[in-house]
Write the structure tokens for this entry.
Amino acid sequence: MEHRAEIAVVGSGFGGALMAMVARQMGRTVVLIDRGTHPRFAIGESSTPLTNLFLQQLAEQFDLPQLLPFRRWGEWQREFPAIGCGLKRGFSFFHHNLGRDFSDDEKRQRQLLVAASPRDEVADTHWFRADFDQHLVGEAQRLGVEYFDRTELTAFCETTDAVTLRGEREGEPVEFRVGFVVDATGPRGCLFRLLGLAKRKLPSMPSTSGLFAHFRNVGVWPSAEGVPYPVENAAVHHVFNGGWVWVLKFNNGITSAGIAANETRAKSLRLGEGRAGWDCLLDQLPSLAKQFSGSTPVNDFVFARTLSYSTGDVVGRRWALLPSAVGFVDPLLSTGFPLTLLGIQRLAKLLSAWPSETELSAYRCKTLAELDQVSRLVGALYASMDDFELFTALTQLYFAAVSFSETAHRLAKPELAGSFLLCDRTAFGQATREICEAVVNGARRNEVLAKIAATIEPINVAGLADQAKRNWYPVDLDDLFGAAAKLDSTEAEIREMLLREQLL
Ligand SMILES: Cc1cc2nc3c(=O)[nH]c(=O)nc-3n(C[C@H](O)[C@H](O)[C@H](O)COP(=O)(O)OP(=O)(O)OC[C@H]3O[C@@H](n4cnc5c(N)ncnc54)[C@H](O)[C@@H]3O)c2cc1C
């Protein structure tokens, strides 16, 4: 069978499904190809304010109102209660000494709670990917995207006027003749293998492994009195020397949990042994062990020997990789979704006409620069997991950059935040790189702490790094009003934006 289309999107996770929907809305004929079927287990679940903003932008720019409910917890619950989802009011971090119960003092030096939204209605979400990705593929098909599941591609042949993808579907040969291919198959994916793309090293990032599963009957992690939001209604991070654990609760009784750890820690915890590794981890984290004491995994544990990955080959004349196929750093800071959505926005612009070499090359440079900036920051966070004060200070670089970017975009001033983590903003981007390199190279911590404070000050619109708050950061709109000038705005403009976006 030969199928013809202008664009082939390979990989039907949320990234590929959204890319296919957008291309279709641009009037292109599109085939969406996956080697698997839906619904299926997928990891990568936690959204952020920037993720949801980029999703909203896709919905608005490409006339896809059916995506809008997924940008917020409240709308999602009303419109699509059957699609699994978790409530994410912010980022909760707890610092553990291995072998001991978690405890903290009144200065709250071993925890960090950063609220991302003022109330549940407008909160972020965890996407239950089995449901969510399947729904999006259905939406893509409703728009006229031709979907081919269970299709294993085995050859990529490029000529001057087309690409032919060859493979097999249900034991029969299949062929797709298309003008352009977008690879949305994730790290070490389809084109990486078919084209023999080169691997490249991510800056400052240690080699890490992951072990994860979905669970039922996970208990409660207690919230102290006066917390900015119930700590479990968040992405919960348990950090310790050499690694960290995530716990994400969904509204369908399932909890996603897993660990990412450097080589030494992964080995000492025997993560490669799956269930035995998880038990070994819980032995070392007694407070978490209590929370998981009655739990049962609902799928096999997945061990990922090497989590981080990057290729430098991002584009060709007739193909491009989504950022999620270009590379992956770590689940820490939930950067996979926003990078994927930014990539879809950028590729959509390129595919509105025939992309020139210069445009493709600009896409490549931007994608790699953003991935590298994430890698530097996460690498520095790994290097400081035994020093929670430094770890907390480093996270403020992330929180300052993303809250500034979100507000700038919502104020319709995208020129203030043209890249993820503001990596191409001269002073902030460069200083972030220097700070992260200094941390990884063991620089003096007091100097680093002072430099972080100075670096975030010009973009701090969220009242971050305020010692008086003792590591609890609720959403306080006065911080935003007080920082209006940093966004080239007035208090009145900010108020109007908050009303327009229903955030007030
Ligand atoms: C442990 C872990 C935790 C993460 N947590 C987060 C998080 O909390 N927040 C966040 O923002 N990001 C997170 N990420 C990153 C996130 O998973 C990715 O950004 C996201 O899954 C990308 O979505 P996608 O649709 O592009 O690709 P994927 O979800 O990887 O989907 C790829 C699709 O391609 C198909 N496929 C693969 N190979 C082929 C092939 N050869 N031919 C045809 N089809 C193929 C697969 O069947 C699949 O359907 C995490 C990643 C990991 C590893």
Observations:
- Residues 10-16, 33-36, 42-46, 153, 184-186, 189-190, 210, 212, 258, 307, 322, 324, 328, 331, 334-337, 340 surround flavin-adenine dinucleotide (CB under 6 Å).
- Residues 2-81+127-201+311-358 form a domain with the FAD/NAD(P)-binding domain fold (CATH 3.50.50.60).
- The CA atoms of residues 5 and 178 lie 5 Å apart.
